[in-house]
Amino acid sequence: AKTYAYNAIAPRALNRMGMTYLQLGETDKALEHFDLAVFSYPQWQGVPVARVNRLKTLLAMGQNQNVILEGPSLWTVASQYPKAQMELAIIMADALEKTGDVERAFLWLDKGFSISQDQQDREILTQSTLSILNRLNRSDAERILAGNPSDMTRVFLEFRLAQLEIESGETEAARNRLIS
Q1: Averaged over 18-46, what is the pLDDT?
Q2: Cβ atoms of 65 and 56 closer than 8 Å
């Protein structure tokens, strides 16, 4: 990156180095490299991807509020990068769930499903949804369901409520829920 500081190679290298540091768990170094890519090369076409990676790092650092503040403005900016948008949806959902805002977390997952391009994307989003869903209690699931969620979210919530009903011995209610 230093050798080619005025070339597109530099921000791409900084972004890749940031990803490597993030994978190694060295979040401070990762954030430093993403910040350099984003703020030193604002005209670089890969900035939206680097910004998503930056948010992923902030999430790993436990800075959920910063993720929640910065994420929404990135959704439109990243529209040319559907994979980055999908990742952003998952990052936002994780941050929101960690702060107790499960309803908005599901809204972000819905956004991810709406732009998913293939089965692999949907599987990744499904795993993220199930991870959040499995920590959802009955009253929260019922409250979100009452709020007229998307069809996709409704399916997940009905399934979760059926699970909880089975666990509490309400097998008939669970059966009725799943067949209706």
Answers
A1: 96
A2: no
